[in-house]
Amino acid sequence: MSQFRALSDHMMASPQITPADVAEAASLGVTLIINNRPDGEDDGQPSGAEIEAAAKAAGIAYCAIPVSGGGFAEPQVRAMTEALASTDGPVLAYCRSGTRSTLLWSLAQASTGGNPDAIAAAARAAGYDITPVRPMVDMLASAQGHDKS
């Protein structure tokens, strides 16, 4: 059984998924799976190619935006923003625990003017803490004309 956690009406984060979890994603109407986990991070983790093949077989788009333990860079935030904008349907992003996917989603939301407090609350409700990137979330939202309040 999957551990998909809703961050919004159209966004879910998850710990590592398997090809079998893709069928559940499809049943939930997911139109895009975003892989935020580098291949080879742990022994035995399914490869991105395995998840991509399962996604394509289920009619779900797939993209990889790997995030290592070293943190986030502007190109990853831009890629996430573009990926999220590429579909009107539900999106599932995954990594080892779902945290990197949630943090990257938070940065992408802020970069398009999302409210930092609302972003943090959505992540918290799903069981994730954006504290490690909160200063960057605030900065990105401010640059888009959205203050914390």
**What best-fitting shape do the alpha-carbon axes yield?**
globular
Distance between the termini: 38 Å
Q: What is the name of the CATH class?
A: Alpha Beta
State the secondary-structure class.
Answer: alpha/beta
Uncertain stretches of 5 or more adjacent residues: none
Major sheet: arrangement of strands: 1-2-5-3-4
Which CATH architecture is right? Alpha-Beta Complex
The portion of residues assigned to helices is 40-55%
Q: Explain this structure to me?
A:
With about 150 residues, this protein is of the alpha/beta class. It has one domain: Protein tyrosine phosphatase superfamily (Protein-Tyrosine Phosphatase, Chain A). Helix content is about 45%, strand content about 15%. It is built from six helices and five strands. Strands 1-2-5-3-4 form a five-stranded mixed β-sheet, with helices on both faces. α3 crosses α4 (about 100-110). The mean pLDDT is about 95.
Brief write-up:
With 149 residues, this protein is an alpha/beta fold.
Keywords for this entry:
single chain; 149 residues; five-stranded mixed β-sheet; Protein-Tyrosine Phosphatase, Chain A; alpha/beta
